[in-house]
Amino acid sequence: xxxxxxxxxxxxxxxxxxxxxxxxxxxxxxxxxxxxxxxxxxxxxxxxxxxxxxxxxxxxxxxxxxxxxxxxxxxxxxxxxxxxxxxxxxxxxxxxxxxxxxxxxxxxxxxxxxxxxxxxxxxxxxxxxxxxxxxxxxxxxxxxxxxx
Length: 148
Known about the structure:
The chain is an alpha+beta fold. It has helices at residues 37-50, 67-77, 87-94, 98-106, 134-143; strands at residues 2-6, 13-18, 21-27, 85-86, 119-120.
């Protein structure tokens, strides 16, 4: 696995790739840094996202998870920039339960790129497992000009 770390408005992030696909995006700084075309392309797209110039990521993704988690993440990827869905709406679309959707959101290994921050509770913000918790979620939604 190769990694590249970067500074961002929501803290330091580390991109991890394996076999030609992004497999993780974590908060923090990795000890070892690599230079690879896909790592650089991912960093460039994240920088453009944070600058407000990119709305759709175009990267090969390979998140590790259960079949259900991957179904939840695939649905999250279809939530457009600036839009949101509730855990309940996602659960209905997946013929599942909102709590199960929330657990899959929390297990998302590639946040931001797989936009779990766009999933809200029916009565408000809901949780966020990234560094900074709900405050980071609010910051990302404001970046996307979601009215809160």
